UniProtKB/TrEMBL annotation:
InterPro entries: Chloro_AB-bd_pln (IPR001344), Chloroa_b-bind (IPR022796). The lineage of its organism: Eukaryota, Sar, Stramenopiles, Ochrophyta, Pelagophyceae. Chlorophyll a binds at residues 53, 60, 79, 82, 195, 198, 200. It is found in: Plastid, Chloroplast. The light-harvesting complex (LHC) functions as a light receptor, it captures and delivers excitation energy to photosystems with which it is closely associated. Energy is transferred from the carotenoid and chlorophyll C (or B) to chlorophyll A and the photosynthetic reaction centers where it is used to synthesize ATP and reducing power. This is Putative plastid light harvesting protein isoform 21. Belongs to the fucoxanthin chlorophyll protein family. The keyword Plastid applies. Keywords: Chlorophyll, Chloroplast, Chromophore, Photosynthesis, Plastid, Signal. The keyword Protease does not apply. The gene is LHC21. Gene3D superfamilies: Chlorophyll a/b binding protein domain (1.10.3460.10).
Length: 245
């Protein structure tokens, strides 16, 4: 559970580092007016009811003096990425709450495994070397995702992840659309709208779960359904070491 939150934080931390400028290519840059059109074209509830939602005025800012269009590209990519992390986190929390995952196992998933732990407690129980392996894989995938012919801050498609299938013998599938279900452009456009909407809902969902586990009763709809957690979600290595104690 904590690893998905940590992944989201990694993406947030990247907000303080200017993306490297990439080679020029087919321009797909978007302005604030384009964002309003995209929001209104979204046929689902959030798009049709809210339209463009930018209460802090971020779409008018200029991050790292890259220009407003580059800033919008970065924000669009960040929202899609954080939505994907939130969907993985929410589904992961549900899966890790079932006896199939958290119950007894004939062969232990890792040294020190204990049945009956809550999802965040399961993360705390993973040995440090296991956690470092997970973060290492995340870092490699994140770095590879920045190798784009046309970067998302330079007119590239926000949310696009380059193919990895075939780069090594063990890489049989791509991370995005591994089974090539979306062959038509119209399916990809609709799929992207659904992904954005589901990502937004998942961000609300996982934050609600985390809030309820730390402050019981803070989310009335799920009060009593989420076990309390005494650790800190913001300190993923709390069970291993601390830089301040």
């Amino acid at each position: 559970m904590k690893v998905t939150l940590a992944l989201a934080l990694c993406g947030s931390a990247a907000a303080y580092v200017a993306p490297a400028a990439k080679s020029a290519g087919v321009a797909m840059s978007a302005s604030k007016a384009d964002m309003a059109d995209l929001a209104e074209a979204n046929p689902d509830f959030l798009g049709s009811s809210l339209g463009l939602w930018d209460p802090l005025g971020c779409l008018s800012l200029d991050f790292w003096t890259l220009g407003n269009e580059a800033t919008i590209g970065y924000l669009r990519h960040a929202e899609i990425k954080h939505g994907r992390v939130a969907m993985a986190a929410f589904l992961g929390y549900l899966a890790q709450s079932t006896p199939v995952v958290s119950g007894p196992h004939g062969k232990l998933p890792f040294k020190g495994y204990e049945p009956g732990l809550t999802p965040p407690e399961q993360w705390d129980a993973i040995p440090l070397v296991g956690k470092l392996q997970i973060f290492g894989i995340i870092g490699m995938l994140e770095s590879y995702g920045e190798i784009l012919d046309v970067h998302y801050t330079n007119g590239g498609l926000p949310g696009y992840y380059p193919p990895i299938r075939g780069n090594r013998p063990e890489l049989w599938f791509n991370l995005y659309d591994p089974f090539n279900w979306f062959d038509e452009d119209k399916d990809k456009v609709r799929g992207r709208q659904v992904e954005i909407n589901n990502g937004r809902l998942a961000m609300l969902g996982i934050l609600s779960v985390l809030s309820e586990s730390k402050v019981p009763g803070s989310v009335p709809l799920i009060t009593g359904l989420i076990p309390e957690y005494s650790g800190s979600y913001m300190v993923p290595f709390e069970a291993d070491f601390s830089l301040f104690n």
